[in-house]
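Hi there,

I know you've been waiting on this one. I reran it after we fixed the sequence typo, so this is the corrected version. Both the input and the resulting structure follow.
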Amino acid sequence: MNFVSTRVITDDMKRLVSFYENALGLAPRWYTDDFAELATPSGTLAIASKRSMDAYGASAAHAADNRTSIMEFIVADVDAEYEKLRKTDTVIAQLPTTQPWGNRSLLFRDPDGNLINFFTPVSEPAIAKYAAVSN
């Protein structure tokens, strides 16, 4: 088994895809008006419309209703990413903070309220752990 993607369901495809395009610096690949992906070397963020979920997924997911998971992205410099985000209307949930497990972490919300963690390994064990996927 290999984990390959996370899919976020939204009522506003253009707004959410644009947000992630800017926040991640990745070009989206649009498959339809209801489905786009932003690929990283280690996995893909898929974004789908609530309309497509209702049509093909038996209404199993609800847009802007996540309060239990965090999407995490390793970045080269979390403080530099914070400086970029704080100049936008992005809701910051936690300022850059060094966690006890060795990552410097920034928590913020996308326009639908989903929680995102940008982090940079800063301790030797964390740097070693993420060496293969670091920027």
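Quick highlight: DSSP finds four helices and eight strands in the chain.

Best,
R. S.
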